[in-house]
Inverse folding.
């Protein structure tokens, strides 16, 4: 079963706009990670946020975590055409110290 | 560092044939994961190794699937006999578990498997 579920399934925006993707999960976690996958490639780690953190930044990325709502959001500011990819959240499924479970992802299309 | 290396990139085979997928870990990493990705089911964890030992194979779909880690840097995933429903992209990923728990995974580029 899916631990994390991303929303929306697909998002299309114009270059320069901000993109927000959401992730909901079911059980308690130690941390939550976001990954990016370009078409035909493997996943690439973007950012990790621990359960005791509420917000984290990395370049144009901003991640928030609300453990009370079991949800996280990924914000990409000033999007570029090169940001076009699928974005996945991954959680460690409550207590497991190795098993990362991925959602089905959000397909982001940034139009030039 | 070349990253996680998978081979082949694409495999087309006929139902009933044996398929072997290969993965080379990043040097120094000691945890290995095999995932399968399909449109319907997303990314599914098949098996996890730590220090060459299989820790969790609960995601391996059937006895037709087997995975080995003969040394610290190399792993194989074998499907025998293959079936059309095994068609998917298979990823391996490695992690340096020594540094910290729950650290990020490094993925290979995947093997696109088509079973006709």
């Amino acid at each position: 079963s899916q631990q994390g579920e991303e929303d929306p399934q697909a998002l299309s925006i114009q270059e320069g706009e901000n993109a927000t993707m959401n992730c909901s999960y079911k059980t308690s976690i130690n941390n939550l990670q976001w990954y990016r996958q370009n078409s035909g490639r493997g996943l690439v780690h973007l950012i990790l946020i621990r359960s005791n953190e509420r917000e984290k930044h990395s370049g144009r990325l901003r991640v928030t975590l609300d453990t009370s709502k079991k949800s996280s959001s990924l914000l990409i500011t000033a999007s570029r055409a090169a940001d076009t990819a699928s974005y996945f959240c991954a959680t460690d499924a409550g207590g497991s110290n190795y098993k990362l479970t991925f959602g089905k992802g959000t397909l982001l299309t940034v139009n030039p | 560092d070349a990253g996680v290396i998978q081979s082949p990139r694409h495999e087309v085979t006929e139902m009933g044939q044996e398929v072997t997928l290969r993965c080379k870990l990043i040097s120094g990493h000691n945890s290995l994961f095999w995932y399968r990705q399909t449109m319907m089911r997303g990314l599914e964890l098949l098996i996890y190794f730590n220090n060459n030992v299989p820790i969790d194979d609960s995601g391996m779909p059937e006895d037709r699937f087997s995975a080995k880690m003969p040394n610290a840097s190399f792993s194989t995933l074998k499907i025998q006999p293959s079936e059309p429903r095994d068609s998917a992209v298979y990823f391996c990923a490695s992690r340096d578990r020594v540094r910290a728990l729950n650290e990020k995974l490094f993925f290979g580029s995947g093997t696109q498997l088509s079973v006709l």
About this structure: The CA atoms of residues 15 and 112 of chain A lie 5 Å apart. The two ends of chain A are 36 Å apart (CA to CA). Chain A is about 0% helix and 55% strand.
